Amino acid sequence: MKIKDFAVERWMDAYENNCEINIAESCVDSLVLEDLICISSQNHHKSNEAVFQMKKKEFVDDLFNMKLTYGAIEGSDRFKKGIASLYENVELNQITVTHGAIGANYLVLMSLIEPKDEVITFLPTYQQHYSVPESIGAKVHKIQLKAENDFLPDMDELKSLVNSKTKMISFPNPNNPTGASLDEEMLKKIVETARSVGAYILSDEAYRGMNHEGKRFTTSIVDLYEKGISTSSMSKTFALAGLRTGWVCSSRDVIEEINKLRDYNHISCSMIDDYIASIALENKDKIIDRSLDIIKANVKIVDEWLSENPGFSYVKPKAGPVIVLKFDLDMPSKEFCKRLLDEEGVLVIPGGTLDIEGHFRVGIGNNTNDLIEGLKRISRFYKMI
Ligand SMILES: Cc1ncc(COP(=O)(O)O)c(C=O)c1O
Predict the structure, then answer these.
(1) Does the C-beta of 298 come closer than 6 Å to ligand 1?
(2) Which pTM value belongs to this model?
């Protein structure tokens, strides 16, 4: 099996420890455990400090007394109840817990895709969605998302690509890196097309729950389609990437198929991560309040910055903590980003690693002061070129 380098991971790995200002991260500014316990202590009748001390003691006692067995193989019921609460109509046996959304996507693709199959994805995307199927030997059709269509896919193009070999339509929703979001109406059209050939839809919902306006949660594919597969994790919306915990949610048939492979490379996930993730999901609304507060404040800052920096533009994102900024220079994005790093110490992600040349990706879930400083330095760098 030959697989392409995961370009974003390579870039981050090479430079994230050698920068002064990192505004490349796609997570919402991560929580420390104290924040989590603090969040879980809010809205109680007693004073917050007393509740905090009580919750902290409970947390430490639970961890001290935890016997570290393999635990519940597919994830604890407590955690799976939290996950099920993110969907309209999902039973606990439709969920399996994984090593992040990256582990979830990998299990799904490796379990269901065969060399004779065809897969359709949208570009730009999270690279797993095409490099993994390609490494299996499947043919991947890539639909280019265009700024003039708000980075939403062309439904006629999608219809023209499906055929009896189409095994899966696979994409992140909300999208990384554009921050575009497929709403229920558009998802229904994709479902109709997938259903016409019996294809699965893998909707990587790692950024779900962070719509900037209106209802926070976009409709999940599992609540729309019998062959829909949702993957997600604690990393982005819940700001707990360090847990390395995610899940697959689908029909029981798909979960059983995935668990066959999962037995060979997971056994189970960490009991400690499962326990902490359960607390987080029991406090999901408060964590999302925090995530959206950070993101919305940062979108305002980007908008103000764009109004003063006409060399840059974007399609305003609808959801999640990543955006792509277009720059009006005749320079490859990798060169732009490497020089920005060398000359100003600012780390962003070149569009060239994300199938969107002429752009770079910025995380708007990052610490606001870092974003302000990073943008200031980008302006200075641009003026010096
Ligand atoms: C769209 C998308 N899916 C999955 C992942 C993997 O996230 P994790 O494994 O931390 O859940 C990422 C990380 O950047 C992502 O952007």
Answers:
(1) no
(2) 0.97
